[in-house]
Amino acid sequence: MNIGVDAMGGDFAPEAAVKGAIQALGYLGEGTRITLFGDQNRITEILLAEGSSVDSFDIVHTSEVIEMGEHPAQAFTRKPDSSIVVGFKHLKAGLIQGLASAGSTGAMMVGSSMVIKQIEGVIRPTIATQIPAENGGCSVLLDVGLNVDCKPDVLFQYGLIGSIYARGMLGIENPRVALLNIGEEPEKGNLVAKAAYEIMEGTKEFNFVGNVEANHLFDQKTADVIVCDGFVGNAMLKEAEGFYSLIKRQGVSSPFIEALNYEEIGGTPVLGINSTVIIGHGHSSPKAIRNMIVHTEHAAQAGIVEKFKEAFK
Fold it and tell me: In this predicted model, what pLDDT tens digit does every residue of 220-246 receive, in sequence order?
């Protein structure tokens, strides 16, 4: 297996990306290699400075970088030799089995939709994140920012996508799927939430358990998969990040608190497309990059994409 890494992506690239890739070597399975896409001279300099063998990696030289502030679709077209574009070309050709980047989220989504494309039958792809639970487990929250407006049928599909992901990645045999709402009663919520509840209720495609309120987000007592639109999900995700920073400033630490650190998860997967793509935080440290790469390998090995294709036949 070969995992591709955008070495030029992120606020601290290429140093953080290359150092994270070096750290990841000790966590990947035997036979898994890392392909670094980016400026070969700069990558080589960092590897040598860190005392790492250049031969431990496959390096694909690219001469361009899609910057964070650029228009994603235009940059993707105008910079064909950028690390992200070349990475997607390798992914589509099967030369790598997963692609990870802490670079431009917009460009990563353009590549996911234009190059890799969504699985037939999927209305809209989604991005998901793992939410730690106090008992040591975790649940899946989706969407967390890709689609800020969702119709009821899209939320229904998110329930199926989240259930497959929780089963394949978290090992939960029969994941409980809930709809994030302002109350547990079926009649609560806005028009979209009410309509989504109606089509989820009684489905045999996943284990729907009803509505869940945000105060149960971290206890996993009610659900293993929590479905919402990307506007709400992204707000919840950013609140969790802010809560972690606040608690750390107060000097509080525990295994649960540390699990809220985005560095521990590394990145969010794009679900519902024809290959494995993981998007990292732009502010990613080497530790976050390391975990993003490990997450990418885990997703590729779990065969999540194939499970989605089977479900949406």
Answer: 888 999 999 999 999 998 898 888 889
d(CA 10, CA 77): 20
How wide is the angle at C-alpha 120 spanned by C-alphas 303 and 156, nearest 5°? 85
In terms of Cα–Cα distance, which of 218, 233, 240 is closest to 154? 233
CA distance 177 to 162: 8
Predicted local distance difference test score (pLDDT) of residue 259:
86
**Amino acid letter for position 135:** N
The tens digit of pLDDT for each residue in 62-105 reads 999 999 889 999 999 999 999 999 999 999 999 999 999 999 99
Edge-to-edge strands of the sheet including 58-61? 58-61, 33-38, 2-6, 98-101, 276-280, 267-271, 126-132, 138-142, 225-227, 176-180, 207-212
Specify the DSSP class assigned to residue 6. Answer: E
Instruction: Give 69's contacts (C-beta < 8 A, 6+ positions apart).
Output: none
Q: For residue 192, what are the contacts with CB-CB under 8 A and spacing of at least 6?
A: 150, 151, 152, 155, 229
Cβ count near 162 (within 10 Å): 27
Q: What's the rounded Cα separation, in Å, for the pair 19 and 27? A: 14
